[in-house]
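Milestone 3.1: sequence recovery, worked example.
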């Protein structure tokens, strides 16, 4: 499943082919993805100029010149492929194809169809049912220690579970929550409401740093964010703790034979990886 940094690199990769361009032709090859596509979907997109491409949590927002926004989510396995009309014909899972006035094609490929697209009036975007309850954007200017502390106040759940709640912070998945807690030195078991003051500052900083590093690493591993195949986004990354049960902790000079190294526990049916010595 694409995580927030991958969606961010996809958004950056879509800017060059789409921003300022007119959608000269839009091909819709199904009536539905995860949800039914909106009425007159292709016709409403066709002829529109793309004003800008942005992101909210793990949603891609393609702002159009008539004020509407094409809202996209990649679901479990959705991909955006940038190509041109001379490329191989679309495959069976290329459900939506945007062709610009410069001949660039953006294909939305989603074999499992857990992805979605909707057309929303710009003024109604924030109140859209999928966006209305989202917490602050972790890479946004408004995200800070005090903002995070406010979201965590009164929550008795473990901090790990609280950070997975999209109402607390938008767009964080299991991997980035584990990594952020490690760099903040906070135990995933700690009650969320105790993360206030300097701890909240540390955690907000760690979240930003972990996400930004992943965006930079993902971007640098792809040429202008577009792979040779035209595919945007998915990338491998080295994690400090995630998926490293039993490995030496990269933050401590700990003796694995004595400490067991990075620990794995299960919280809310999801694996959590952490260092018991460093994270309190
Ligand atoms: Zn450690």
């Amino acid at each position: 499943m694409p995580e927030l940094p991958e969606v961010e690199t996809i958004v950056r990769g879509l800017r060059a082919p789409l921003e300022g361009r007119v959608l000269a032709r839009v091909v819709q090859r199904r009536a539905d993805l995860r949800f039914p596509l909106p009425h007159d979907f292709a016709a409403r997109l066709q002829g529109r100029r793309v004003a800008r491409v942005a992101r909210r949590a793990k949603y891609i927002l393609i702002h159009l010149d008539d004020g509407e926004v094409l809202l996209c989510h990649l679901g479990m396995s959705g991909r955006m492929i940038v190509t041109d009309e001379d490329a191989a014909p679309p495959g069976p899972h290329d459900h939506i194809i945007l062709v610009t006035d410069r001949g660039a094609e953006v294909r939305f490929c989603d074999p499992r169809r857990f992805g979605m697209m909707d057309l929303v009036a710009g003024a109604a975007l924030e109140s859209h049912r999928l966006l209305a309850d989202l917490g602050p954007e972790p890479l946004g200017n408004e995200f800070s220690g005090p903002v995070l502390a406010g979201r965590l106040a009164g929550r008795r759940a473990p901090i790990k579970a609280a950070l997975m709640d999209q109402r607390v912070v938008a767009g964080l998945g299991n991997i980035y929550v584990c990594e952020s807690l490690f760099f903040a030195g906070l135990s995933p078991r700690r009650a969320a409401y105790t993360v206030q003051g300097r701890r909240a500052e540390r955690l907000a900083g760690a979240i930003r740093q972990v996400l930004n590093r992943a965006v930079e690493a993902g971007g640098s591993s792809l040429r202008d964010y577009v792979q040779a195949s035209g595919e945007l986004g998915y990338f491998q990354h080295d994690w400090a703790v995630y998926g490293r049960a039993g490995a030496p902790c990269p933050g401590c000079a700990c003796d694995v034979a004595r400490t067991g190294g990075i620990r794995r526990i299960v919280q809310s049916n999801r694996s959590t990886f952490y260092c018991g010595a460093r994270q309190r």
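The beta strands are 23-28, 50-56, 59-64, 68-73, 79-84, 94-100, 104-109, 116-121, 263-267, 270-274. The mean pLDDT is 93.
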